[in-house]
């Protein structure tokens, strides 16, 4: 079994920054062999893709809405993935989830169906 715990959420004013962390525990021996992603879900909306990072820690992909403001990174030695969020906007308000790719390999995906384990989420609220 795999457990994933996000942290770092909170309330911030528009234009501010937050750094989310996600630590994986349990069956993590292959953490470095899979892509890791971040998704978010705002009230009344469907869960949407935010960012993904390949197992090499170099290849990344972002949603257009966060490109240039958010940065995803990972530390395989710590079984962790991070999301640095700068210049936050009110529309970034949501619960943020980290997720583990369902298959090992170099491929990255923005589709939620491609992930098999999810964290419980951390709330990010951006005030105007």
Give an overview in words.
There is one protein chain. With 128 residues, the protein is mainly β. Helix content is 0%, strand content 50%. It is built from no helices and eleven strands. The strands form two sheets. Strands 2, 4, 5, 6, 9, 10 and 11 form a seven-stranded mixed beta sheet that branches. It has a four-stranded antiparallel beta sheet with strand order 1-3-8-7, with no helix packed on it. The radius of gyration is 14 Å and the shape is globular. 33% of the residues are buried.
Describe the structure in brief:
This protein is mainly β. It has strands at 2-7, 10-13, 18-26, 36-41, 48-53, 60-62, 70-75, 80-85, 94-101, 115-118, 122-127.
End-to-end separation in angstroms reads 40 Å
Measured on Cα atoms, how large is the radius of gyration? 14 Å
Number of H/I helices: 0
Binned strand content: over 45%
List keywords for this structure.
4-stranded antiparallel beta sheet, 7-stranded mixed beta sheet, mainly beta, 128 residues, 11 strands
